[in-house]
Design brief:
about 110 residues, mainly alpha, flat
Length: about 110
């Protein structure tokens, strides 16, 4: 299978699993079984996609997007942008959450009397 065929197969399988998942959530037992088997098929297809994707990147048949090439040249400007955003933030620093004390449930023996 080629990379494009594998991608198409993944999309089809995922869409079938998503539609059956909604039915299973409503209580349809047959749909729940189809979801379980579909996720196994999806897992196998995903492994195949990863293998084909890595091979395509190594062989050069997986084209790079132009935006990826531009990002590599602007590495120096990104940290400066982040620093300026941090200075202009008007929100106060977030406080760490305090741990809540453990509350014990009421004694069941006293509730029965």
């Amino acid at each position: 299978m080629g990379l494009n065929e594998t991608t198409k197969h993944m999309r089809d399988t995922l869409s079938r699993v998503c539609s059956d998942l909604e039915k299973a959530a409503a209580g349809n037992k047959a749909a729940a079984q189809r979801v379980r088997t579909g996720t196994i098929k999806l897992e196998k297809t995903a492994k195949n996609f990863r293998r084909e994707s890595i091979n395509a990147e190594k062989s050069g048949t997986f084209p790079k997007r132009p935006s990826q090439q531009k990002k590599s040249s602007n590495k120096a400007s990104k940290p400066q942008m982040k620093a300026s955003k941090a200075k202009t933030s008007s929100k106060p620093a977030a406080r760490p959450n305090k741990p809540q004390p453990n509350k014990r449930p009421a004694n069941k023996a006293s509730a029965r009397k």
